Amino acid sequence: MNPQIKTVLLTVLTLSCFAIALVELSGVSNTALFNKYGIGESSGGSPLMPDSVAHRTKQMHDMPKTTIQFDTTKHNFGTIKEGDKVKYAYHFKNIGNNPLLISNVSASCGCTVPSFPKEPIAPGGDGSIEVEFNSKGKEGHQTKNVMIYSNAQEEAMSIGFEAEVVK
Question: What predicted TM-score, i.e. pTM, was given to this entire model?
Fold first, then answer.
């Protein structure tokens, strides 16, 4: 191969690598190591996971407030056998004028696992937060709470349930 062509190809390759490095370090791309949302900094976010809790929390604080309305915030599973896994879906509606973003949902105990929509809910839209309770080793009356963090007027709110766990 002609030495001049080799030099041109090597120069193009070097400039391409340099351009990619600049884009990553400047934060222009969504997966950049140090983008404008702070993902990849010491906040604990992951540069490869823009849907992280840290990212959604930053987005939530940047969004205008809205209003969330639940059909119910408490549920009673009644009497269940120790070891049963039970689920309940708390339905809600965004009755505000701005999109609703739930940044995180955390349970008061490892026996309770919540799942929630990660995408914003449009005004007038609805969704649900599903909570699964594992009663293994939880004999007796159980009361559990789940905290919801969002851009609603009340940034942190609680939903919960109770159950009577028998052997």
Answer: 0.66
